[in-house]
Amino acid sequence: SSPRRRDKTRKRERERVGERRGREDVAVVLLLLLLLVDHPSSSPPKMHKLKPKEKEMVTSFMQFTLAGENTALFCLKQHNFNLEMAINAYMENSQRYLQKEKEKAVNRDAIAKWFEKYQDDPTVIGVQGMVRFMGDLSIEPTDLVSLVIAWRLKASTPYSFTKTEFVEGMAELGCESMAALKQLLPALRNDLTNAAKFKAIYLFAYSFSKDAAQKSLDLETACGLWTLFLKGRFARLDQWIQYVSENYKRPIPKDTWGLLLEFADSIKPDFSNYDADGAWPCVIDEFVDWAKQQG
User: How do residues 116-127 score in pLDDT, each as one tens digit?
Assistant: First the structure.
């Protein structure tokens, strides 16, 4: 055979080998895809794999709890996508459900610059700065969401934020500006609609509002806070404030503060389920006797 014919033969042989290898490569890829379908990853499902209703639940969970997507997915899966049950479980023990989230790109330098606008000195936003801060946030001093913000920032001193509390707290919330915090206000207000969070904020308000040098909360401040927290929740609120103002006339101990919320939530307005031998503070026992006489 001629050299040209031998070259053509070798070329056709190389093409056949290439085609065979190409088919084998395709087969390998298809096999891998089948394996992935049959044996999906054990990691939480991504949003695009969820049903529309499940996606709505994830979004609602994140808006209400401010948790990340992975945490929302994990907690909802643990409760068979029962949104109410998942939220309540998360509120009672968030550490149990927290999952590693992608690091949020939060600019702490921007938050520190934001802090400087309201600082009373380089380390703290004091009373004057707090008034300006709440004014720019367009909320009244009597708006309970102001206490929610303080609770979220883990503020330790009455009516003030340290620079560390402000920067780290706002970074955790994902806020770098007043505009961002304003957008977050509806979610923060939702904290007050959850029983576990409401109780935590109520208890926080005691220490946040108390003079650090005093052991108990002064009566006038306590009455003001009770009006904010318990109006519409405690049927005997007006009578309670009248009683402690006219008869008790002393600062409110921490146990009385905490147990009054339980009293307001569990005891019927006519006191028919009140147990005088229960572990209530004396001031509550005396109030019940007084209120019954009032009719």
Answer: 999 999 999 999
